[in-house]
Amino acid sequence: MKRTLGAIAAAATIALSLSACGGGNTSAEAKGEINYWLWDANQLPAYQQCADDFTKANPDIKVKITQRGWDDYWSTLTNGFVGGTAPDVFTNHLGRYGELAENKQLLPIDEAVEKDNVDLAAYNEGLADLWVGQDGKRYGLPKDWDTIALFYNKAMLANAGISEEQMKNLTWNPQDGGTYEKIIAHLTVDKNGKRGDEAGFDKNNVAVYGLGLNGGGDSSGQTEWSYFTNTTGWSHTDKNPWGTHYNYDDPKFQASVDWFAGLVKKGYMPKLETTVGASMADTFAAGKSAINAHGSWMIGQYTGYKNVKVGIAPTPAGPEGTRASMFNGLADSIWAGTKNPAASVKWVEYLASAACQDVVASKAVVFPALKASSDKAAAAFKAKNVDVTAFTEHVKDKSTFLYPITDNTAKVKGIMEPAMDAVVSGKAPASSLTQANEQVNSLFK
Amino acid sequence: MNSTTSRAPLPATARRRRRPLTARRMVAWALLALAIAVSVLPFLWVLRTALSTNGALASQSASLLPADFTFGAFKRVLGLQSPAEAVAEGGSGAAINFWLYLRNSIIFSSITTAGAVFFSAMAAYAFARLRWKGRNAVFSLFLGTMLVPPIFTALPNFLLIKNLDLLNTMLGMVLPYVFMTPFAIFFLRQFFLNMSREVEEAAMLDGAKHLRIFFQIVLPNAAAPLATLALLTFIGQWNEYFWPLLVGSQDDVRVLQVGLGVFKSQSPQGAPDWSGLMAATLISALPVLALFAAFGKRIVNSIGFSGIK
Amino acid sequence: MTTLTKNPPAAAHKAPQRFNRGRGMAKLGDLRIAMLFILPAMIGFIAFYVVPTVRGVYLSFTEYNILGDPEWVGLDNYAAIAKDSLFWNSLAVTGQYVLMNIALQTALALGLALLMHKVAKSTLVRGTLLLPYLMSNVIAALLWFWMLDYQIGVVNQFIEWSGLSRVAFFGSEEWAIPTQALINTWRHMGYTALLIFAGLQAIPHHLYEVANLDGASPFQTFRKITLPLLRPVMVLVLVVTVIGSFQVFDTVAVTTQGGPVNATRVIQYYIYQRAFTESDFGYGSAIAVILFLILALVAFIQMKFLRGNESDLD
After folding, report:
1. What fold characterizes domain C77-306?
2. What is the ipTM of this complex?
3. pLDDT classification of B3: cutoffs 50, 70, 90
4. What kind of fold does domain A21-146+328-399 have according to CATH?
5. Which chains have 3 or more CB–CB distances shorter than 8 Å to chain B?
6. Is the pLDDT of residue A10 over 50?
7. A104 CB contacts (<8 Å, ≥6 apart)?
């Protein structure tokens, strides 16, 4: 009866960021215990080792790592800002940090970075710049990055007679979908065994979809559609970071989204309504889709499934012959309310250094931000028999674009989520996004 | 009283009436069996999932048996599996301090239950048995709290606990529940209203004071509904998730339900550790099940506020 | 007992006097001792219900992003809500959910209670039906999320085996709300049935015997005896479940999160979204005030309509 009593309480703090009651007695000396939070449990062992190594080198500083799943991470963190119990250092996300910086929750670290001669050029291009706020101050040092590629079911590809070479050279355009749509159609199989490009294909009774669907993609379309919409020269905002105008009304974008929604109508991609529930990755493992476009942070998930052999191919090249992938990067930030800024800075710099990023690389879970460490991670993946060039290629070829960073990200998402869902589920044409776009842009007036 | 009446020999007419109903009774039993199946089968599915290897669940979704049978998920919940082993099974590599969370859950649920039931009983007694001006108005106000959307009070309550400097303490977690719950007051008042006044009045004529009446007559006579209410409250508190998450997120006060969150998706768009989550669900339900098995009979028999039986 | 309850005898009037000793205290009745009895509950009531509620009402007249200070904007939030199509949508969706949930839950629970009463007084049966209630809302929702999944859920597997086509329980706009209602019904059905069952048990058996002797049909007996005498219990059940249903949140939050499109954007979830995800606490508070008024009205109507305070037993 009072079941929801605390229920909302929880959430209560999601966006909550009262003034950081921080500061107080800051010790200039770098010693004591600092708290560090991250969300990905798969990375915990790597960072635990970093912490141990760090303490060995700095016996006066102890690092206590707390891992919290993504679902609770941000609410608990904001809760900590309000309550004064936030960690000194935490893993930060591009989608969140704008608001945190604006609310003065983050400690600028420019001075330290300059004083300690942190080489910002050593990181993969663009990653370090992402963490400079609108006020020109730096709020984090890059730790890792992710891009998008196509995970595919090797057995299904073989059955369909599609070579891995073909997978590597896909093309796409918003009119007929290029070879990308062709192989998607061919990989789609209905209940009677007819393929999507054969006569008599029953689009209402599909056993295996050529392409898996994660969802409508709300405002960013990170894994859903941005890897092809952004090959047309379209971009989410007028400039990035800190754009003030979104472009969902662009006919180029709408044509691309129409093509995407068309895949559902043709029976090549599952209906949106069927994707609410088990994750797209699980659905793939269940043999319900042949190709999934997904992020590099999911490599472990895909390669960890029993009984499914997974290959990874790069995203298709667009009408202008180039590929595109959203380039998202995480960083470690310091809470403005930390009682121990000196030690926190030291730890952040250590996390951003080759010493720690090489450790992370060796565990083959994500790609560290440092160029050299990225290569080591790729090698570590290779040692596990996972070829990750599809992800690293984007960075090498500079075919990446940055995750759109603006103000009001939560509100933009609130508007775009139902709007995109309506389009992808076929309930509204892509032109309806023009109206949503007006709503979005009115937030910036 | 019930049991005696129901066991009392039926009048001949009634007995004769029963017979033609056999077909009906069969239908009734069938319906009941269906209801039982609907209630129990999901638990079997919980067990099946908990005994599966997480990484194999998706590809064996058509199998009714555990997918790649393993006790790994249970080990994971009890903290007996290394992160590497957990990840190899497709599970969550997150750390879980099971026994500590269990202890915290027991403390949290026991204190809130004891406090809420006792204080609510006192208040309910005042609302049901004492006569004072404004009684009904105050009672309506108390009841009115059931109508306040919880989302409303969450933030101010959190700030209050923060101002009291009680974040991440058991006291801070317990405070909003320990004084009363509107439902408990409502529930017990209904019961007290129906309770016979005779004994109470006899005691009063003997000059007994209200406090004594309350402790020596009312409470003992209300043992059954109090136990029922206590169990219901305990179940509710045991399953409470968001407030403990909000106020007690640190390890030393974290309760089981919050701790189990590690089996939900760890990264955006990731898949939950279904096996771990289901194993955790089963294990965390064990204490409640045990309580239920121990007192269930009595409670099931007296659930509700059926007054004097 | 009846008379005693309704017209307390002189003895009861005298008792407090004796207790209070002082003259003229009779008018106050048991006020002092009552204050003592409700003191602890009152502390909790004021600190954790009244004060935050008052603060919430105040905030509904402000623009407040939780970061800065609340800024008084008068009725602006309310005016904006009147024009907010998502708000009206959330009301419609919530109404739909409440009706469906209450109808399902009450009908099933009443049916089960009658079954238990008539054929199976076994504690084991009743205990078994109570099992789902031992699970938390969040876990129950996640469990069904898993079992009802379109692609790899066991329920859809059975649906397919039986030759039907799979159902997107959470994803389709037609099914999303009924599915939420079904999950909550599943969890609360046995519990509600037990409440009603207890009410059935309390109906004096001799009434049925009389009815039997008079040759009343089972249906007549149900209508003339069972239902009227069950009323106080049904009122409790209805008031509690209706209010609970209006506050549906957890199951939506861990499953559909308002979607598909806006099909499950129930009012509590919408409040949560506005206030906490989008940092518009003033606006969210204003919706919460409206929800409170609606709930108060609904509860008032229920109590009046069903005359919940009286029992036909007396």
Report:
1. MetI-like fold (1.10.3720)
2. 0.81
3. very low
4. D-Maltodextrin-Binding Protein; domain 2 (3.40.190)
5. A, C
6. no
7. A19, A20, A336
